[in-house]
Amino acid sequence: PGAMSQALAKEIPQEEGQGSSRRSSWGLLVTAGVGGTLVALYAVATPFVTPALRKVCLPFVPATAAQIQNVLKMLENRSGSLVDIGSGDGRIVIAAAKKGFQAVGYELNPWLVWYSRYRAWRDGVHQNTKFYISDLWKVSFSHYRNVVVFGVPQMMPQLEKKLEEELECNARIIACRFPFPCWIPDHTTGEGIDTVWAYDFKCSRGCEAKSLEITSETES
């Protein structure tokens, strides 16, 4: 009996040690798996909330359903090309394409651009949409008749000047969330964060200046 007790006493700690080792291994595997998943989620999600435009801190904030409807209302009786500056996940571009526009989105965040292309394909409007990975300050918008902007107050004065220099007199600019500082809107719809301001560029001072320059050059 004494020898048997000693043998059992030797075997029990060994079995307990092996069980503890197995539990430790499983714990390490679970920890590694959870950690890897969190890193992957961070890598995918971070581009969706980091600034989309380089010069100004402009985080990605999806357009609400009311904002989209208000933009489409400002596009009634309009046609031709359309550009969404800082197009995010592409919902404005896709909605405009469904209304018959040849719609283009410019977005600095590559993850959002790829997601926008997928959404356009899923919704069956990929032939009428294009999405470019680009900084808006390095793009000319001179050939667009309809411009949609989801901006922040810090960028609006500089963007106002840029559009005034580039757009033709038949263009309409639609600002969402924040108006341009100097232009007087021709049309306004919505309330609160869903407010949308529309500017017909033929009425702006910049367009009148362009017309005067063309007239003086023709006369001379």
UniProtKB/TrEMBL annotation:
GO terms for molecular function: protein-lysine N-methyltransferase activity. It comes from Tichodroma muraria. Belongs to the ANT/ATPSC lysine N-methyltransferase family. It comes from the Eukaryota. It is a single-pass membrane protein. SUPFAM superfamilies: S-adenosyl-L-methionine-dependent methyltransferases. One of its GO terms (biological process) is positive regulation of sensory perception of pain. The chain crosses the membrane at residues 26-45. It is found in: Mitochondrion membrane. Keywords: Membrane, Methyltransferase, Mitochondrion, S-adenosyl-L-methionine, Transferase, Transmembrane, Transmembrane helix. One of its GO terms (cellular component) is mitochondrial membrane. Residues 1-22 are annotated as: Disordered. The keyword Nucleus does not apply. InterPro entries: FAM173A/B, SAM-dependent_MTases_sf. The keyword Transmembrane helix applies. This is ATP synthase subunit C lysine N-methyltransferase.
